[in-house]
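okkk here we go again. third time trying to get the zinc ion bound version out, last two times i messed up the smiles copy paste (missing a bracket lol). double checked this time i swear
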Amino acid sequence: MTVMIISKEKQRKVLKEMHKFPIGGHQVVQRTYDRLKLYVTWPGMFQDVEDYIRKCEVCQKNKLTGPYVKVSLQETDTQYQPWDKLYLDIVGLLPMTEEGYKYILTCQDNLSKYLLAKPMITQTADEVALIFFPLCNFALWHTKFK
Ligand SMILES: [Zn+2]
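finally!!
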């Protein structure tokens, strides 16, 4: 259930709390807006989110300043066997499929670059765990019992 907020002061307060949330805060406009609209709404909310984030000091400091940012070469910590180190990422928000999927969980093995992609309805930790734990079992089986 979403709540309509009329008061400009309360809109600003809710937006601030959502954007500056200590865990996973300072997200981009779309992600902040998507998170916010799960709970509240008001006319012009997307524009307000955009304006707020454009003025957010923390976001501006962390933003890349130009198109040519040269990153120095670093020694990698490539693993010795597959499934020792995995990279997880969530792609989305995507257009919803007929089954209700809006996100993709990707899991890539650091050594082999083998990539798995699974559709997700939400991006909650519960759903990630439901997908990821069977992958861990697969990885364990692959490395220990092959
Ligand atoms: Zn910010």
